[in-house]
Design brief:
Elements (H helix, E strand, L loop, with lengths): L2 H8 L23 E4 L25 E4 L3 H6 L2 E3 L4 E7 L22 E6 L4 E8 L11 E2 L4 E4 L10 E8 L2 E3 L32 E8 L5 H6 L13 E11 L4 E7 L5 E6 L7 E11 L9 E10 L2 E11 L1
Antiparallel strand pairs: 1-2, 2-9, 3-8, 4-5, 4-7, 5-6, 6-9, 9-10, 11-12, 12-15, 13-14, 13-16, 16-17
The chain binds zinc ion.
Length: 323
């Protein structure tokens, strides 16, 4: 962003040069969608998000808003205009397929996938990427209101999970909606462009649990993506009882632990993983046990998943199953 605008922010002057953004996906952060990656604020080949954390990767230009799985993507989640403006360009027609399953060369120059670019006041632009094939419902030149549907979240272009990559630019230069006006190459600066009502739900988090539940057999990532994991709840006669979690935003050194307590409060399972040897954008963990000879005690089984980082628990989630 320009130096003059930066000074205006620094000195708390009029924010007339800024834009106020509403959330570009029809979802609730922390419940039906999550922030997977932020803008990279590090000018070297390392990467740091706006809070000086590691939830980004080198040269990442936008904010990734992730759905829990492809099952929700198939149900259809709307992409919404973040502000009033005019549509500058669209693309549609690219397949919803993970980049891991195709030759990357086939999407060269079209990494955004199906997308929309909008122009707003004061030189701002917003861009919406990886939308669902056939879902884009605006055309170049359309006048669009904030909150109006542009299409649906998809899996097109350079992506391996269902999400919206949302980019904000001013006068052609990328800006971070969480840290507008931050000095180049610096984190922990700038101000938020998000509407005041969004601030609490968009506060910075140390990772998150995307999916969790109980299953009657060991599961794989594909079971979570397809929604199959939701249909595997154990019953009173299941031969095994398993708890699973898929978390995002894990860092090197993180120790994950998954415990299950039985209806009588007794520990049924206590499983801790080795410390991670590198950051993980996502990680699936499960733990469980075979049915005891006298069967499962009826009642509520409680799973507790935690991430220990540098000696303290930075995230803990509990979830229950009643047999
Ligand atoms: Zn992205």
């Amino acid at each position: 962003m320009g130096g003059a605008a930066a000074l205006a922010c620094l000195f708390g002057a009029s924010r007339a040069a800024a834009i106020e953004l509403r959330f570009p996906v029809d979802c609730v952060v922390g419940t039906t969608c999550w922030l997977q990656n932020y803008v990279d604020h590090d000018s070297s080949d390392a990467a740091r998000d706006y809070a000086c954390g590691a939830q980004t990767y080198d040269a990442h230009s936008g904010t990734d808003i992730r759905l829990p799985s492809m099952a929700e993507q198939r149900d259809g989640v709307a992409v919404l205009a973040a502000a009033d403006g005019r549509v500058a360009g669209v693309r549609d027609g690219m397949a919803d397929v993970s980049v891991n399953e195709i030759d990357r060369g086939t999407i060269k120059g079209r990494e955004c996938g199906n997308g929309v670019v909008m122009r707003h006041a004061d030189g701002f632009e917003t861009q919406y990427c990886h939308m669902a094939r056939g879902s884009v419902r605006v055309r170049a030149g359309d006048e669009v209101k904030a909150g109006q549907e542009l299409g649906k979240v998809g899996l097109s272009g350079n992506t391996e999970f269902a999400h919206l990559h949302f980019t904000v630019r001013q006068n052609g230069k990328n800006v971070d909606p969480f840290a507008f006006g931050a000095a180049d190459g610096a984190c922990n600066g700038g101000t938020s462009l998000w509407a005041p009502a969004l601030q609490a739900s968009l506060s910075y988090r140390q990772g998150a649990v995307l999916n969790k539940g109980f299953a009657s057999r060991p599961i794989e990532m594909t079971d979570i993506e397809s929604g199959e994991a939701d249909r595997l709840a154990p019953a009173a006669d299941s031969p095994v009882l398993i708890a699973y979690v898929r978390a995002i935003g894990l860092q090197k050194g993180d120790v994950q632990r998954l415990q299950i307590e039985g209806p009588d409060g007794a520990r049924v399972v206590d499983s801790a993983l080795e410390a991670l040897d590198r950051p993980k954008a996502q990680y699936m963990m499960f733990a469980g046990r075979k049915r005891p000879p006298d069967g499962w005690k009826p009642g509520t089984y409680r799973a507790t998943y935690s991430i220990n980082r540098g000696g303290s628990v930075v995230l803990e989630e509990r979830f229950d199953l009643t047999l």
